[in-house]
Write a structure and sequence with these properties.
alpha/beta; 4-stranded parallel sheet; Rossmann fold
Amino acid sequence: MNRKSIKTAAALLAAILIFSLLAGCGSKAAASSAAADASAAVSQSASVSQSAASAETSASQSASASSSEQTSGYPVTVTTYAYDGSEIQQTFDKAPERVVCVYQCSIENMIALGLEDHVIASYGLDNDVKDEWKDGLSKMHYDDSVFAPDKETVVALQPDMILSWGSLFSEKNLGDYADWNGRGCNIYIDTNTRRSQEGQTMNRTVENECTDLLNLGKIFGVEDKAQELVDEMTKKIDDTVAAVKSAGTAAPTVAVVEFGDDYTANYGAAELAGDMVTKLGGQLSMPDQDDFSNEDLISADPDVIFVVYMEKNTPADEVTAKVTDNAAFASLSAVKNSRVYPIMLGDMYASGVRTIDGINTIAAGLYPDLSK
């Protein structure tokens, strides 16, 4: 029996007792009056009980609405890519709670969005994280014993999301996304690591990095923070272009190059670094080349040269010396005018939240007078 029934029964019992006592004393008027009073009391008690029940129902409905609001926005479906570069859809019924992050941008995007508590394991830093992100990294169970985990290790972790580069989902690494989906685990790759489909060129752009941040914002319910990071990037580009236009500054010619032990690489128009240069008003001197020879660079003679480095492999001054200290390049305009600059790989390749750092570095190199 609930409290409403108990209160109502008690009131009825009291009314009956009062009526019986007065009737036994032979006072019909008193009995009638007492019965009326008792009836009113019963009515009042029932009214109070109904009000309480109504309040409880209202509170229950309010709590239910609040709970619904907390889970609003789900399910969320986003587009990402399989190992072969084909487009796939991943649907999230709630914010993932057991995320495995592999490689620099995956780790740093999660920290910048304040999502480090969702990460159960992380791997594969090319460079140290920024000082302001070190506390976040300490919560992400970073494992430096391997650069990237094997499939057996990740299966044992029972993740509900894997955030990484497209290359991690090859058969020799973690395997196809469909297998992970079958285990209740979604994937998301940095879009600029998507493989080119046969006969197509994959353009790696600033917009792709922005889209990735916005998608992570949707997946984890932190859209405002993601938009804030994207707005910072787009504002820097817009402000730089506006300043260049106002100053009437000529567009400098630019090369972004990398020297390996047995290779050279040129970051042309289809690469993220090339897209940054172009968006900031620069003109690529070797837009369509993937690699280059000494003769190519000398013939192009760019006004500005950015030399790519990885912080943990080679210091910045050592990579720029490969241009400035090479007698073969002594005639280059960039060498003569001291316009050879280092740029960190993590700032301009699958850069995620560091995209703003790549933009700032390139803008300062292109327009040193505007950056003072």
